[in-house]
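Study this one:
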Amino acid sequence: MKFRCEREILATALATAGRGATNSTGTSPVLSGVRLDVADDVLTITGTDLELTIKVSVPVGMESAGSTVIPARLTADIVKALPAGSVDMELANDNVAISAQRSQFSVRPMAVADFPTIGSPSSEPFVLSGSTMSAALGQVVRAASTDEARQQLTGVLIVSEDDAVRMVATDSYRLAVRDLDEGVLLGAGQQVLVPARALNEVQRLVGGEGDLKVYLGENDVVFEIGDVQLTTRLIAADYPNYRNLLPSSYPNVATIGREALLDALRRVRLLAQGGATPVRIQLEQDHVVLSAITTDVGEASEQIDASFEGEPMTVAFNPDYLAAGVDAVDGDEVRLAVVDPMKPAVLRGVGHDEYLYLLMPVRVP
């Protein structure tokens, strides 16, 4: 195996595929590597931890075909550090030589036979708008749990709802729901539970314009973005009935400028001690007051212009979760809907009813 590739192209491909490789010391060593396959002037780099697989294909100047497995992180760091220009890689004498200009490295390869076989998509793809999916994933994935002990909550539920697709994520403290006009993706009543980690990578890969192809299988799903293919296993678990969390009506509604609220939150959070202290929101007829009180440290408060319909009250939230929700909604204004200080509140962007962010309150004295 011998080929030549521009450093920037190779470094990006290695970093992207390497995010699929494992960093865990308790798994097979070969899973910490990426597989390189060179054929027909194309280099395909694959990284996998058996749950998530990322495969990247880039054009190269090939001198000879072949395959090898090399350490993912080390190789990516080497190529990134090389001088600009062409990079040569060659497998010879049980070493992979990496060189550019006067810089020369060699790394020990791993056994290709030990690297798991990665199948190809078995279904026909659905084609979705990449920019739309990227925006939707950015709104929803943030609410998924990272606690592996509650595996079902580490996923994003994608379900068919009235000829549309609904994406749902929750960590039991907050809930994000985004509706998409992409009903063709699933059959009537069909639902899948996709790991949030994988969807985070999909969002990163999709970026701006372009199409996203989705191949939905029985046990896995494949996302294809240009020359990158990401495969992840579906989570086989029952998702909680999130609909029970959504109140049927909200008698108290405040409408606040989104940027003004974010700025005030940023300042008041300085006294919230890393999220340990809740932020109180005092709802009044023509304004709201944000405040944080930390015993033996100090307190902060800020008044913001707002319109409010309902009974004046004070509600309190985890400041990090609240800021994440305000940041996620679209539009110039945010609508905060509250039943009472002890029931979940809902954030929406004014004029953007396709997305809601539900937040559990914090009990304060």
